[in-house]
Amino acid sequence: MGGNGGRPGAYGGRRGELDVLRALVVLGLVFFHAALVFSPDDDFYVKNPQTTGAVTVLAGFGVVWAMPMLFLVAGLGARHSIRRRGPGGFARERLLRLGVPLVFATVVLCPLPQWLRRRAADPGYDEPYPSFWGRFLTVRPDLADFPFVLDGEYFETGHLWFVVLLLAFCLLLAPVAAALAAASGRLVPVLGRRPALLLAPALPLAAVNALLGMEEGFAGWNRWAYLLFFAYGFALADEPRVREATSRAAVAVGVLGLVLFAGTAPGFVAGDDPFTSWDPPALATRALFGAAGWCWVLAILGLLDRRRQRSAPDGPAPDTPATDRGTTGRPALLGYLAVAALPLYVLHQPAVVAYAYGVVGWQAPMAVKYLVIVAASLATILLVYELLVRRSAVTRLLFGMRGSLVSGRRHGESARRA
């Protein structure tokens, strides 16, 4: 394979559409976690008296690609950040933009779902929230579950596991970033000549999931599989020759992913313990799931590039970073959501659990309860973001946003002029 179809720069520039996809995945987590209230299989914080197995089936179509895509997009962002700041500056910036929200949300937001879990499970439980909050924060060091290095009887990171892993991966990446970038530079020409090798990353993912086991608490993937997605995003996702090959193969790879995913159905439906068992069917199920996840992520990346080229047939200008006023070349709402991704992620699960706690006791159909939980949670996190997070320099810092609102706008304007 050679060239790019005669359109110089057609696959160049920052992939701003992935910022939007990340935000849409985060909003989709509201729908996903609200659905777990009605799932018979998941140990979610609050459960509806009536459940349906349909939730488990539908959830599988999301978990196979959604969180892996978030880590891959984060790896791509890390590549751009290291180019601008260098490894040391990148590590400091990630400690600020991920570490501060992690500490803040762990202390302020994470105790609420655990407290509501106890109240939902035991109607006689009447411990005041301030008292439980203190017990929740009673922790001890525990390195056995790295990178989750704190443990306690009531403590958990909850949905912030994504932020914990992402911060750990960024800090692991910083000292080896130059070597990984050099290795990817040597690999890209090979992928250009042999596009079938784009499927090769499926093999380590299949091996990690099969041999280390799938972890329900991390959206069904092994935590170290996410490190591979992050590394693949850093090394390959922004290379023009890789993007061109991915775009051409998107449909075929997507079909392969569907076939592989369908192959997991017998193991997940009939297996006694498909997540951790060492019997051959369980190992095969986990391996197929890992390979299917890579195929789906690869197909989505390729299809997004196809859409990008159709919408700009002469070759788009490089995308500018998302800002509070939106992004060049896309609707303002999508740009707004792209900037809001991390704050919305941090806010979403406590909102879902709180509304679910109030709704599951209603005498209403499951569909009505579900829609109320989703609508109320979306409205709440968007309003909190707009009115309490993005308008203050202090809250922007606490939720991992860049600078002040004014400086963010100036940054966007200078990027558009560049």
Automatic annotation (TrEMBL):
The keyword Aminoacyl-tRNA synthetase does not apply. Keywords: Membrane, Transmembrane, Transmembrane helix. The chain crosses the membrane at residues 20-39, 51-74, 95-116, 160-183, 195-214, 220-237, 249-271, 283-304, 333-358, 370-389. It comes from the Bacteria. InterPro entries: Acyl_transf_3_dom, Glucan_succinyl_AcylTrfase. Residues 17-385 form the Acyltransferase domain. PANTHER family: BLR4337 PROTEIN, MDO-LIKE PROTEIN. This is Acyltransferase 3 domain-containing protein. It comes from Streptomyces thermospinosisporus.
